[in-house]
Structure of EVG1 protein:
Amino acid sequence: MASQERVKAVTKGTGFWRCPRPATYTPGTYELLRAMMKESKLTNFQQRHIMDTMKRGDTLPLQCSPTSSQRVLPSKQPASAIYLPPILAARPHLRPARVCQAGGAYSREPFKPQATRDLEKEKRRLQNIFATGKDSEEQKRKPPPVRQEVPAPELDRFEELVKEIQDRKEFLADMEALGQAREYRGIILA
């Protein structure tokens, strides 16, 4: 008990070896903060408070009361109603077994058997086997013969070149009709 009473929160930058140093702000920082304060909707009091803090060389406040110089105290959060052992308190992603069981994490879905094959189709197949002595499905399962496609005759390379030249001549004629032959003539002749 006595050790808990002596422990107090130490603010950052304080302590025996860490003496707080006044912050130094450059003129550029002053101008930047002035511009940011003008753009934001801070009250005159808030702007004055920030400027005074900068002149003294203190660090900028994280929160500033909108109307008075009273310090805003952070609201204390209520103590948790459930006591957790220190191992679980350090790792919030772990849940106790009671919570998991209450949420239904350990309950199994009931097994619902389903037919893996069509029983009516199987009955018809067996009826055909007993009636005719043959399985009608075996005849259906044979794949149809693969058709051999007749390959298209390959064009001669000379004929391909003649077709390309003809296409380019037609394109150039179309461009002359539109009045844009000057742009494409050099490209096509090359």
